[in-house]
Amino acid sequence: MSEARTRRRLLSSVALAVVAGLTGCSTDRQSDTAPNETSLTDSTAKERALAAEAEYLRSELSGASCLHNWGTSATAVRKNATVTNRTADGVRVAVVHPYWSTESWTEPASNRSHKTHTDGGSHAHYLVTPATVERVDGDSLAPC
């Protein structure tokens, strides 16, 4: 009887040790996002910031009466977005977005026509949350 009791105690001790050892191993994997309320991945935040900057450029360039033509495709500058910080407020993203424009005008004295083509890139910072994209600061365009 004493041998059976010793065997039970030994098995109970081993079982407790195994359970105690496994308890510390059952943690969740951490995601690549910071422990805040933004559940945005870096790539999603960057895509949304670039799309917002493209819309900003379209809005500014389409309202410029002096421009003959314009676009937001890459010419001399490439699109780029970098996550610079994650805060409780959201994901901060720095963007560079290409644009180009052609301005046409006629010289009054000689009645000569002129065209000027411009290639450039806008620089801006955005605060991206799951619900909003806010342009915090950046280049202002004044083509005319």
From TrEMBL:
Region named Disordered: 25-45
Lineage: Archaea, Methanobacteriati, Methanobacteriota, Stenosarchaea group, Halobacteria
Organism from which the protein derives: Halobacterium salinarum (strain ATCC 33171 / DSM 3754 / JCM 8978 / NBRC 102687 / NCIMB 764 / 91-R6)
Protein's name according to its UniProt entry: Uncharacterized protein
Regions of compositional bias (Polar residues) in chain numbering: 25-43
